[in-house]
Amino acid sequence: MTHCILIGAPVDEGQRRPGCVMGPAAYRVAGIAQTLQELGHTVEDRGDVAPTPLRPASHPNAAIHHLPEIIAWTEALAAAGTAAMVDGMPIFLGGDHALSLGTVAGVAAQAKALNRPQFVIWLDAHSDFHSFETTSSGNLHGTPMAYAAGRAGFDPLLPFPLRIPQENICMFGIRSVDPAENAALMQTDIIVNDMRVLDERGIVAPLREFLDRVRAENGMLHVSLDVDFLDPAIAPAVGTTVPGGATFREAHLVMELLHESALVTSLDLVELNPFLDERGKTARLMVELVGSLMGRKVFDRPTRSY
Questions:
Q1: Which domains does the chain have, with CATH numbers?
Q2: Which of 14, 143, 245, 274 has the smallest CB count inside 10 Å?
Q3: pLDDT per residue as tens digits for the range 108-131
């Protein structure tokens, strides 16, 4: 049994398509607390985080927008994440992927306090490996993995210098990488299991290889699940759709393998835009995936009627 701590992260400023601010409410309406309780876990909902007070901030890259707001969210979510890790397993209900600037920093701080290595698995169509210098869109939801891996240029604007060892990061399922991100990734030790790798090797072997490393090093594992990891045919409620994503069965297999590993210590659910959804189908699917991550087996899945 796990004590699950729900933390709303209504971050909408990391990109330009409004709607992610409604994500935390959609997860709650879709029954995330009930799903976890039915699986025998205890649930504490700490409500939605509020950003810290804004302060002036700017960057020479004129494309960047909402930098003061993202800094404020990063500070608030890092603090909330560190506090929640002491009491249980935080599940961050997003919100766009800029929220991970804070959540990964927060959980990594607790791992450091426990003298355990932090690992991250990034379930996403995108690598999110832009620096402040390389982003041409200025959308800061495309930067959290670069920040986590210690790319230059984030200090002193972001409050927590983050240096997760690159070999402790696994990108899984990516299929849309900008040239500047690709060039930077090629210079790192980050494990990149893109869709080509998964098509050739399947889901299980690459994932188990990474999980074996986490286990061998007594690591703490943060899972960041972006809606666009999934194929848009089954998960339309995202503003960054990329064809060729994980199928329903593949996504549940990933979640079940993560559950069986017993290594997951924190979770992001990001980029859900309920305004783009079809009768809540994406929110319900994401909640079902959380159920698989937390112990539901494929033969326990209920029949749905509409």
A1: 3-300 (3.40.800.10)
A2: 274
A3: 999 999 999 999 999 999 999 999
Give me the pLDDT at residue 299, please: 60
Q: Which of 128, 268, 277, 288 is catalytic?
A: 128
Catalytic entry in 226, 268, 277, 288: 226
Residue 41 catalytic?
A: no
Name the pTM for this structure.
Answer: 0.95
- Find out whether 231 and 246 touch, Cβ atoms under 8 Å: yes
Closest CA to 73 of 97, 107, 89: 97
- State the DSSP H helix or E strand holding residue 48, giving kind and residue range, or none if neither: strand 42-48
Catalytic residue among 12, 228, 231, 268: 228
What average pLDDT does the chain have?
Answer: 93
Is residue 126 annotated as a catalytic residue, yes or no?
yes
> Per the residue annotation, which of 66, 130, 141, 259 is the catalytic one?
141
pLDDT digits (tens, 9 = 90+) for 238-275: 988 889 899 999 999 999 999 999 999 999 999 999 99
- pLDDT value for 153: 84
- Strand, helix or coil at 121? strand
Q: Is 260 a residue of the active site?
A: no
Q: Which residues pair with 121 in a beta bridge?
A: 170, 223
Please confirm, yes or no, whether 271 is among the known catalytic residues.
yes
Q: Is 231 a catalytic residue?
A: no
d(CA 127, CA 84): 27
**303 has a pLDDT exceeding 90:** no
* Whether 12 is catalytic: no
